[in-house]
Amino acid sequence: MREPTVFHYVRLAEARRFAEHSWQELDAVIRTADGLRCRSSNPDVFFPEEGSRFAGRQAMRDERARVAELCRGCPVRTECLASALQRGEAYGSWGGICQPDYQILRQLWSERVHAAAPPPAGSTAVKETR
């Protein structure tokens, strides 16, 4: 995995604002938002072509620009990213973040946000700590 940059940490901080909301709550907000370009787009545009690699800086810049344009001006972009992270989505572009950058954010989320969250009430993890 590539090393995270300031870009990744900034987007992680934005998504963390929604860490206490369930993905279902966030999806409900997204469903009720008006004028989302993703609703009229082919879902395939948010997933890299099978077998594609983002080798080289120019390819990465092109993919970032393409995905950023798809999500430009979206009023629920951060909620979309946070919801995908909470659901554990493994692939795709979410909240204006292209696939390779999303993979880095997913790892950071797992290490810094998800791991720091208390286990759900009634889970075995809670019972084991008593």
From TrEMBL:
| Claim: Secreted is one of the keywords in the record | no
Q: Which family does it belong to?
A: Belongs to the WhiB family.
In this chain, [4Fe-4S] cluster is annotated as bound at C38, C71, C74, C80
Q: Which organism is it from?
A: Lentzea jiangxiensis
Q: Name one GO biological process term.
A: cell redox homeostasis
Which cofactors go with this protein? [4Fe-4S] cluster
**GO cellular component annotations of the record:** cytoplasm
Classify the main location.
Answer: cytoplasm
Q: What is this protein called?
A: Transcriptional regulator WhiB
Q: How is the cofactor bound?
A: Binds 1 [4Fe-4S] cluster per subunit. Following nitrosylation of the [4Fe-4S] cluster binds 1 [4Fe-8(NO)] cluster per subunit.
Q: What does this protein do?
A: Acts as a transcriptional regulator. Probably redox-responsive. The apo- but not holo-form probably binds DNA.
Molecular function (Gene Ontology), one example: DNA binding
Organism classification: Bacteria, Bacillati, Actinomycetota, Actinomycetes, Pseudonocardiales
Location(s), subcellular: Cytoplasm
Post-translation changes: The Fe-S cluster can be nitrosylated by nitric oxide (NO). Upon Fe-S cluster removal intramolecular disulfide bonds are formed.
